[in-house]
Amino acid sequence: MSLAKQRKVWTFALLFCSITFTTILFSYTFRDPSLYIFKHAFQLSDSFFSKGPCACRQCIAELEGDPWFAERFNQSIHPLMTRENSILPEETFRWWQWLQAERQPANFSEVVEELFQVIPDEVLYTDASPDRCRTCAVVGNSGNLKGSHYGSLIDSSDFIIRMNQAPRSGFEEDVGTKTTHHVMYPESAIDLDNTTSLVLIPFKTLDLQWIISALTTGTIKQTYVPVMPTIKANKNKVLIYNPAFLKYVYESWLESRGRYPSTGFLSLQFAIHICDEVSVFGFGADQYGNWHHYWEDNHLAGAFRHTGVHDGDYEYNVTLLLADKHKIQMFKGR
Ligand code: C5P
To answer: Residues lining ligand 1, CB < 6 A?
Structure first.
């Protein structure tokens, strides 16, 4: 090979190497998943390139640099109930039973056993990895969603978590069209479509009996108020909020303010523990401090904010702090 030809080959090889190297560096610096192909093509180890616990631009589980967050965030308590984690420490069980005390509660472990014969007993969402970027939208019920035009932004998330009575029909432009998870308790239940996961927050043993009944015989019609005897929901997608996680949220995140956390705050914490990036919509009281809704004119209702069951102000301040610390992104609407 002539000297000139050899030089050309070397120049080409050098150019090729530097372009490849720059691209890999760029892909990991900006965490662009479309460029991750290079990692696999060259079989380069994760530990060498890994920059954080997830593949998003910012990862919730990144604990370095924020002692306030690191002190509170605990991934060892799973947000959802399984047969295995349903055996609660005595103190946790007593705390949970006190939330909505029942005069003659049924046997908890027998009810749990019956429950997992109706719904699946699975450990879900424990797949966090440097390659995963799961984006989630938590949609509260605030009237600040009215006229917000957030619909398509909400729909662009992987998980879309709604709660309680939240309707979509007629409000799509502001709240979106998709729901992957709908969080509720018996007294706030609504029918769902087949693709949505019903996430039940149990505040008493009767709530677990209710979901069994609502998915099968329809015999339970009343708790402390009349409830839906049957519910339209995909049995195979029903999930149960873990009472131990509920206590953790109350104590670690709310410093035991109020009687127990609101559906909105529990949904937000659920998202923070199973997602890598969380966007929050529909949180915020009206100018008088009421928890108004986007679908009705309930400005004077007062909702829970003034009843003492939840400490709405404290919850909102923690939520704002999470946003200040770039752990969540908050969309405040109008
Ligand atoms: O009214 P509801 O309890 O169904 O609302 C669901 C959640 O949305 C609440 O638990 C609260 O966290 C949040 N919310 C809010 N501001 C409102 C209405 C609701 O932050 N105006």
So the answer is: 140-143, 163-165, 262-265, 283-285, 291-293, 303
Strands 328-331 and 159-163: unpaired
Task: Give catalytic status of residue 260 as yes or no.
Answer: yes
Query: Known catalytic residue: 306?
Result: no
The rounded Å distance from CA 288 to ligand 1 centre is 14
Q: What ranges do the domains of the chain cover?
A: 3-49, 67-331
Largest CA distance in the chain: 96
Tell me the pTM: 0.86
The CATH number of domain 67-331 is 1.10.10.10: no
- Options 28, 248, 260, 294, the catalytic residue: 260
How confident is the model over 139-184, as pLDDT tens digits?
999 999 999 999 999 999 999 999 999 999 999 999 999 999 999 9
In three-state secondary structure terms, 181 is strand
User: 40: pLDDT confidence band, cut at 50, 70 and 90?
Assistant: very low
CA of 140, closest atom in ligand 1: 8
The pairing of beta strand 239-240 with beta strand 197-200: parallel
Alpha-carbon distance values, 53 to 24, 63, 233, 253 (Å): 18, 9, 34, 22
Of all protein residues, whose CA lies closest to atom 20 belonging to ligand 1? 283
